[in-house]
Write a structure and sequence with these properties.
The chain has 210 residues and is an alpha+beta fold. It has 3 domains: 3-34, no CATH class; 44-95, no CATH class; 116-206, Immunoglobulins (Immunoglobulin-like). It is built from 3 helices and 11 strands; from the N terminus they run ββββαααβββββββ. The strands form 3 sheets. Strands 1-2-3-4 form a 4-stranded antiparallel β-sheet, with no helix packed on it. A 4-stranded antiparallel β-sheet has the order 8-7-10-11. Strands 5-6-9 form a 3-stranded antiparallel β-sheet, with no helix packed on it. A hairpin with an 8-residue loop joins β1 and β2. α1 packs antiparallel against α3 and α2 crosses α3. It is flat, with a radius of gyration of 21 Å.
């Protein structure tokens, strides 16, 4: 549905109509063009990026006053809001292979202990992946990676889940939609609040049901 402030074909129209045409205001005129559609909206890289940004956005609400103050100081040098500076700093570090951090700058001095990979439980077009978190130390979150190639290395290309690390809790992730009959491989590692990575778990695998 188009969002308009006047008749649809007036110069005030803006928004997308019937998932076909997009009306946009450009300076003093309104232009109309085909609705842009990403060619590959669910590539592995795009999914991984959304997972990271979603996690960081939800965790922003849990930062302490001192942590937010440090991000505010950094934001003044970037010409951005504290939140946007926090997101950009951590996503940039993530794309360079570094873990995100709650505070600025990332100290990276902790040595987080790692989870134990338990296994996968097959279901219809999905796999339930489980990890035991009872041995966590200095952990902020668990990062789960997936591949259809055995012996793979987790990276920014194949991240599928980020979850807050709660001590003594069995963490599970429902990974879907998956292709029935295909073997999927998983590895995980944790990272600390100061941006330090743990080591990867051993590899586990599973085959989703039809």
């Amino acid at each position: 549905m188009a969002i308009t402030t006047g008749p649809l074909h007036s110069i005030e129209a803006h928004g997308t109509f019937a998932k076909t045409l997009t009306f946009a205001r450009r300076r003093r005129s309104t232009t109309t063009y085909n609705r842009p559609v990403p060619r590959q909206p669910r590539t592995d890289r795009q999914v991984a990026q959304r997972v990271m940004v979603g996690f960081l956005s939800s965790e922003w609400k849990t930062l302490s006053a001192s942590e937010i103050a440090n991000w505010s100081g950094y934001a003044e040098t970037q010409g951005l809001s504290p939140f946007n500076s926090y997101i950009r700093y951590n996503v940039t570090n993530w794309t360079r292979g570094m873990a995100p951090s709650r505070d600025y700058p990332a100290a990276r001095i902790l040595d987080p202990l790692d989870p134990t990979a338990l296994g996968t439980l097959p279901n219809s077009r999905r796999l339930i992946v489980g990890f035991l978190t009872g041995t966590f130390r200095d952990c902020w979150a668990l990062a789960l990676y997936r591949s259809v190639i055995g012996g793979f290395t987790g990276s920014k290309e194949n991240l599928v889940f980020l979850g807050y690390a709660r001590v003594g809790v069995l963490m599970t992730h429902h990974d879907y939609p998956l292709t029935p009959g295909v073997t999927y491989f998983y590895r995980a590692r944790v990272f600390s609040p100061d941006g330090s990575w743990g080591t990867f778990t051993g590899q586990i695998s599973g085959v989703p049901l039809p």
